[in-house]
Amino acid sequence: MKKQTNILLAVIFALVAFGCQKNTSINVVSPDGKNTITYNSATHQYQVMVDGKQVVLPSAIKLHSKTLNLNGVFKVTDMKQKSVDSQWQTHLGERSVIPEKYNEIKLFLENNNAKLNLIFRSYDEGVAFAYEIPEQKGVKSLILDQEAIEFNFDNDYPVWAAHKAQKPYRKCPISEAGNAVERPLVLEHSEGLTIALAEAEMINYARMKFNTNAAKANSLVSHLDGKVERTLPFRSPWRVVMTGKDAGQLLERNYLIMNLNPPSAIKDQSWIKPGKVLREGTLTTQGAKACIDFVKAHNMQYVEFDAGWYGPEGNNNSDATTTTLDPKRSKGPFDIEEIMKYAKANDIGILLYVNRRALEKQLDEILPLYQKWGIAGLKYGFVRVGSQDAANWMHEAVRKTAEYKMVVDIHDEYRPVGFSRTYPNLLTQEGIRGDEETIPNSHTLITMFTRMLAGAGDNTICYNSMDRVHKMGSHASQLAKAVCMFSPLQFMYWYDKPASAPEKKDGLWGKTNTIGDEPELEFWDAIPTTWDETKALHVEIGKCGAIARRKGNDWFIGGINGEENSEVEIDFSFLKEGASYNAKIYTDDPSVKTRTHVRIAQMQLDAKQKITMKLKPNNGFAMHISLK
After folding, report:
1. How many CB atoms lie within 10 A of CB 335?
2. Does the domain at residues 2-259 carry the CATH identifier 3.40.50.12160?
3. Beta strands in 369-418 (DSSP E)
4. How far apart are CA 142 and CA 228, in angstroms?
5. What is the pLDDT of residues 187-210, one digit of tens each?
């Protein structure tokens, strides 16, 4: 009741001020009282406070349009208040029950030229705001030339900046971040407070990124990838400030991004099935059957046929309604009818890769055809990103694919904005610098607590590509990635093939290795891809990290180490009190006489225990904990 009273008092105070024709500040406080976003109508600025401390200083909201003057002094003419206290459930997330609690105020503003609405929300997990261009006299549509919303701070805090979704990160002060910095952008504010600046519900809009503000110290400013043209009325995507004691808490509560999107438009989600995926690289019927046999034997759910099955993917004339092999990738034979019959008999789903050239030209033609074939889902390749047109096409394509009951994996530069809540057939996406680029553990340890705040990431995990694995880290740390890098469609053994598949000798994807029978692979056989609960156990961005996830009564833990010796203490108090558990622990050990050198140990656990994992540089560990 007290929390509701706080927001109502803010509304009453503001309305009295309007009656007296005074300017005022309007506060929106989170249900737990920790986060506050404030709007000042005199200055047309907002600010953010956490636990009573100013985190985002007064920052201007600037919108540039030749159609209307959307800046200057605005008068608040009305407001609406809303509070939500609910939760929703999913079988496709990092947690199965998601709380949705917030307080909201919508302000109706006017200046001499235009009307503008601002919507402010405070959640326990952070704050968000959006602007709305309502109907205007004599104006039916509007071109927004640019957005320049400030995020001002009191210090030149360190941020983790990447300039493209699939490029390296670097830690630098705000002043050195540069232009076109990706979101989410993690900022290490102070002891006990880390924030992330993000974007949510970016559907029919130009993508937002961040620039260092050349006109102001310790400041970032939003920047759109091109103009936005919309019929009135329309609302912007959400501008988000996620708050937490550290990046681990941000990860545990990253459902904030999905909560800023509408509920599912798909009532019956029973056909949307997560799972583990093996890429078939030979593009042959023999290779397909070998993969189907392998995934069935190893508790995997999907086989995916990658580029080349309908011709050269970069050729605009390649026809995705046919199985016309790219001769540079395969000589065949590739009998899709026989493959689909075999997959169906073994209850294995088939995914097809389709490059955006064919998607944009043939989507309405291929969807009913693939449904007839029995295809379970599509992987979109080399999609366009950034512009309003690209975003609109992309999300419309996901909607259309849902109509044919197919799941989607979007590859390359696309990063999630929470659309998977509304269309949960969008199971995963890339927008990540993953294992196919042979990235070191230290970079994975950045990705875990930056990019992964936005949602699922298809990391394309490797295992038997020995040269790549040794450059990245170790085999135990590869095992751990299936826990640490959340993806409802989890691609495993990215450069590997089953022993019974034919050799692939074209070299287009590097050397193709044979999947072994190492005993530790039982960990991947057992692991699910979606979860009931997620906990960040150890968080040192770029240095060391450990994450625990629960499915039913089983817990899986993944730990990855960077370039220095580390110790990770695991407190098992998250286990059910009074219960006993069996644990299998997988660690790197050069003395183990297998080609992967992974030791398997067993122990008994309960909620009162703590253990310390001592990790050498670039090593890792994995655990499977099951109820006795």
Report:
1. 14
2. no
3. 377-381, 407-410
4. 8
5. 999 999 999 999 999 999 999 999
